[in-house]
Design brief:
Blueprint: H1 2-5, H2 11-18, H3 22-33, H4 53-70, H5 79-90, H6 96-105, H7 124-135, E1 138-139, E2 142-143, E3 149-164, E4 183-196, E5 201-207, H8 212-223, E6 237-240, H9 245-251, E7 258-261
Parallel strand pairs: 3-6
Antiparallel strand pairs: 1-2, 3-4, 4-5, 6-7
Length: 262
């Protein structure tokens, strides 16, 4: 009525008279200019629709059902398909964004999973505690001495050796390093490495196969270097090896056992 009787008022002046924001006055003035004279709000974004706990549970159940039927994770499901399925089940419109928001806010997400290694041995904690103490520089409750070093060793098997058909060009002015795309296969190599936990130094070597003998050569390579070679007193080699089934049969050691070499 104010704009009808005083059409020369600006949006700011009209808003000050009725106690509204100028943007609200601008919206109503645009609607009236288009010939829309009713006071009912048009359907738009507005307030997000509310869902009862049972409605939210229905959306979660439908998402879990789709994951189980398709054997694909939720990230590969279509929120559009889930929203249409939810509309047919609940009998009211639901946008894909609303479905995604409800699933993201859910405290328990049954459709998600992660790989986990469950301890298979009853004495797992006792064996792991020895290794963890070594990583902190302790043995049987006492601090290791200055001539004691903790070496953690492991292996990376079946590394594909690729021989480039052309030499790699170093980077130059206005040019990045260039690596030849074509290569020849050089077989599979095994990489064995020992990591000095306290010093952060890695010593490694490549072998044609794994086993006790290649591992012994790694031990010799490390122990012939400084500071291990000239360590005074009773210096030791500590290793925490992730043993495969073949190693367990060969050496009789269980997985994750700490071994000491003198």
């Amino acid at each position: 009525m104010l704009l009808h009787y005083q059409p020369t008022l600006s949006n700011v002046q009209a808003a000050a008279c009725v106690g509204l924001h100028p943007n609200s006055v601008r919206l109503w003035r645009q609607r009236w200019a288009k010939g829309i004279f009713d006071l009912e709000d048009q359907p738009g974004r507005g307030r997000k629709p509310s869902f009862s706990p049972s409605g939210r549970a229905t959306i979660t159940a439908l998402a879990c059902e789709r994951v189980a039927l398709t054997q694909n994770p939720l990230s590969r499901q279509s929120l559009g398909d889930l929203s249409r399925l939810t509309e047919a089940t609940l009998g009211k419109p639901v946008s894909p964004r609303t479905v995604g928001r409800i699933l993201d806010e859910d405290a328990i997400k049954p459709w998600q999973y992660e790989h986990w290694i469950f301890p298979a041995r009853a004495d797992f904690f006792d064996k792991a505690a020895v290794v963890l103490d070594l990583y902190e520089g302790r043995w049987q409750g006492e601090r290791l001495g200055m001539s004691d070093y903790v070496i953690s060793s492991d292996e990376k098997t079946s590394i594909q050796a690729r021989i480039r058909c052309a030499d790699t060009l170093p980077p130059g002015p206005g040019r990045v390093r260039r690596v030849e795309h074509e290569y020849e296969r050089g077989g599979a190599l095994q990489y064995l490495a020992g990591w000095d936990v306290g010093r952060g130094v890695v010593t490694g070597r490549c072998e044609a196969s794994t086993g006790i003998e290649p591992f012994g050569r790694l031990v010799k390579q490390v122990m012939e270097q400084e500071p291990y070679r000239s360590a005074s007193g009773c210096s030791g080699w500590w290793t925490t090896v992730r043993r495969t089934a073949a190693k367990q049969r060969e050496s009789g050691c269980s997985r994750g056992m700490a071994t000491r070499y003198w």
